[in-house]
């Protein structure tokens, strides 16, 4: 059947409503980040309502809270970090509960920010260019860390948002590409996204990897310098997803399909630049991100103030909410996340764990809702990083069928035995 709407995407397929599930209110947890845009737009601009759904959005303070409230059935669905369903299906963390995702909320949005004090030291020590690449910044930081260690200075402390997060793996990937061991040369701690800028300003941390708008908030305050973006590390890396309990998905198939249709339409809407003013205004509201509207508008356009000195950078497609199959939950991406969990000592290598990791991403539910024509033409499990427009920053290529060789090929990886990782925050 076809939905009726004045929206340009009115021709999108909608699932037949035959199971009697009827109109439904879904309680959805989220963290105040721009990458929650699709979920927020679906609620604010009528896309959920068009599918007979009401989204009751609940702002939360930490990813662990979101995970627990989904597990304890306080939430029906949740805005989640892309590795969280993978970790849950592997039984990792302090409260693992089976979680799947049938829909990615897009790509992009993360960046790495260092304190202005640390970045100035890097520049003064090596003559680092203001236009240095992400890899050059990482290698320069490595040289400064050697000097700090030789002089007996404490190692710097960097913030990530959650142990099983894209931020953790991307920060580690960036550090390791520069020759830095994330477990021995620096200290990584968990800091909730809205607190990262304040923690940097107070000197509690020396840098962080977080989603928009908090990198730009730090740079405009003059306390941080953005040194790398998610696109520099791996452009196709999944960022946030919609998480749900598999038993809930199984018992509400029509609702799941209707939700995916609503989110797909919202993602298309979010991608269009002419809608960014309205989207930025909605996101800036105190109910959602509660950040300056001009900063949100700039990050939606990929326009970065790298620091408070006027250095700027424009990143095309910094956010991809729909284009390029950004919403498709590709199984090989779940397996890449699993590879990083193994690389950093969070998970064991094995066939059964690999199958469990892959089961977290459900492209079958996506195709059921939107039709086979909505899916990419290549396989759900593909070689990642082989396309010239989708390279990893260090040149590695991820072939899921050769996962042990892929992990062994990294010069920097955990030397510690696997110990189940308790995430306290």
UniProtKB/TrEMBL annotation:
Protein name: NitT/TauT family transport system ATP-binding protein
Domain of life: Bacteria
Coiled-coil stretches: none
Pfam families: NMT1_2
InterPro entries: NrtA/CpmA_ABC-bd_dom
Compartments it resides in: Endomembrane system
Residue span of region Disordered: 1-23
SUPFAM superfamilies in alphabetical order: Periplasmic binding protein-like II
Transmembrane segments: none
Organism of origin: Rhizobium viscosum
Keywords: ATP-binding, Cell inner membrane, Cell membrane, Membrane, Nucleotide-binding, Transport
GO molecular function: ATP binding
Primary localisation category: membrane
